[in-house]
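Q: I'm building a small set of examples for a reading group on sequence design. Run inverse folding on the following structure and report the sequence directly after it, with nothing in between.
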């Protein structure tokens, strides 16, 4: 796989980040994870808007503009000849002197990597079983609104789910209210209304959550934000998760007990898929011509930028 690091493209084993990088030392950074479909990063503008907001909050200066970042992302997709993938963008404060003070860390690290897209219906179950994590996220934490590299509660919650052979974990916040799943937002249906925890609940404000809420409104469904205890999920007519990689995933079980299922979830899944296909189609890039171009571009651009073109083995 070819990766992007600080303005250049490298074969993945040749891309090296300093052991003094604050992303490594303190999680001092941000990231975004997007789905690439037909060679196009889905909901790019929304992800970049959150990324820019996060950089502002952390007082990080991305070394590229969002237009330059898009150009680099497009080029990375071409160099790897991957039409379906997961794109991860990471920005850290870069290397600096020892200690928490960010003073002296003036060269941020920007990396972009591609990863295999999950195969729907195989690895990613369309329906998930959750357990309630013992870890909690902080209510009213302003940092929860942006996608920082600090994810320990989520990592440990997911480890609890793995150990319990569940698919994912539900995280409550420090007030005992519903927040989110380890890497997804939570939405439940009560009567005709879609409910989701509000900004201050400690959940990341997901891009997919926003897109699904907008979609629901267009379908004539009412949406509301609410701080609620987990018991509401037992009374809900349907519960689902949203995230950029898996879209909408129905929750069918919580802590070993079945939850009710609603036809509204399947309806939203269909609408979301249409949105996804429409966005891809509006920027339609002919797959065959992209494949042709990628092969030629890979060697030409690699030669120009000093990158190593992906080997046949890397591409597998
Ligand atoms: C903690 C957390 N919550 C929610 C989400 C969903 O956000 P998005 O829809 O932007 O992918 C993610 C995504 O990775 C996440 O890590």
């Amino acid at each position: 796989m070819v990766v992007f690091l600080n303005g250049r493209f490298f074969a993945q084993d040749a891309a090296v980040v300093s052991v003094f990088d604050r992303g490594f030392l303190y999680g001092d950074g941000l990231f975004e994870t997007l789905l690439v479909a037909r060679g196009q990063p889905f909901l790019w503008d929304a992800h970049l808007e959150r990324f820019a907001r996060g950089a502002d909050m952390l007082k990080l200066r991305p070394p590229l503009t969002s237009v330059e970042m898009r150009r680099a992302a497009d080029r990375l997709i071409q160099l790897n000849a991957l039409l379906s993938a997961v794109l991860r963008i990471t920005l850290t404060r870069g290397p600096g002197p020892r200690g928490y003070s960010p003073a002296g860390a003036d060269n941020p690290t920007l990396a972009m990597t591609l990863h295999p897209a999950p195969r729907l219906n195989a690895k990613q179950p369309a329906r998930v079983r959750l357990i309630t994590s013992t870890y909690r996220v902080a209510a009213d934490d302003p940092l929860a609104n942006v996608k920082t590299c600090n994810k320990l509660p989520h990592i440990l919650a997911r480890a609890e789910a793995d150990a319990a052979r569940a698919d994912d974990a539900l995280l409550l916040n420090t007030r005992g209210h519903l927040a989110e799943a380890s890497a997804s937002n939570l939405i439940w249906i009560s009567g005709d209304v879609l409910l989701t925890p509000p900004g201050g609940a400690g959940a990341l404000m997901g891009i997919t959550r926003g897109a699904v809420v907008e979609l629901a409104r267009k379908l004539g469904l009412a949406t509301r934000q609410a701080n609620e205890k987990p018991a509401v999920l037992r009374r809900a007519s349907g519960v689902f998760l949203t995230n950029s990689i898996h879209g909408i995933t129905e929750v069918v079980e919580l802590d070993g007990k079945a939850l009710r299922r609603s036809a509204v979830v399947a309806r939203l899944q269909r609408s979301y898929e249409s949105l996804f296909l429409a966005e891809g189609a509006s920027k339609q890039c002919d797959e065959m011509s992209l494949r042709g171009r990628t092969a030629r571009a890979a060697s030409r651009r690699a030669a120009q930028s000093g990158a190593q073109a992906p080997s046949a083995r890397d591409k597998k």
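Confidence is low (pLDDT under 50) at residues 284-316.
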